[in-house]
Write a structure and sequence with these properties.
- This protein has a single domain, classed as Winged helix-like DNA-binding domain superfamily/Winged helix DNA-binding domain (Arc Repressor Mutant, subunit A).
- The protein is globular and about 40 Å long.
- By secondary structure, it is of the alpha+beta class.
- A 3-stranded antiparallel beta sheet has the order 1-3-2.
- The relative contact order is 0.18.
- Helix 1 packs antiparallel against helix 5.
- The two termini are 15 Å apart.
- The chain contains 6 helices and 3 strands, in the order H-H-H-E-H-H-E-E-H.
- GO terms for molecular function: DNA binding; DNA-binding transcription factor activity.
- This is Transcriptional regulator.
- It holds the Pfam family HTH_5.
Amino acid sequence: MSAAELDEMIKALSHPLRRDILHWLKQPELFFADQEHPLSFGVCAGMIDRQAGVSQSTVSAHLATLLRAGFISSKKLGQWNFFMRNEAVIQQFIARLNEQL
């Protein structure tokens, strides 16, 4: 992970809603138990919109930032986009921060 990538990841975490999304995706069964599709697919963007209480376009922009930083991954199934945490990248990020600080 380059210094520029680390900086981008830190910037991605600068917004509280993006941190909330990562928190919700850590234990989706607690926050998205009523999702119709299996949580093994990830969490549907519409469920994240509803949990966040903001517009779909706002949530989409935040999800795109988290995707670019590598903190989450997405999968499209039919008309739905599902998101889940990328635990390997999150652990690499934490390790890199520990090295730096």
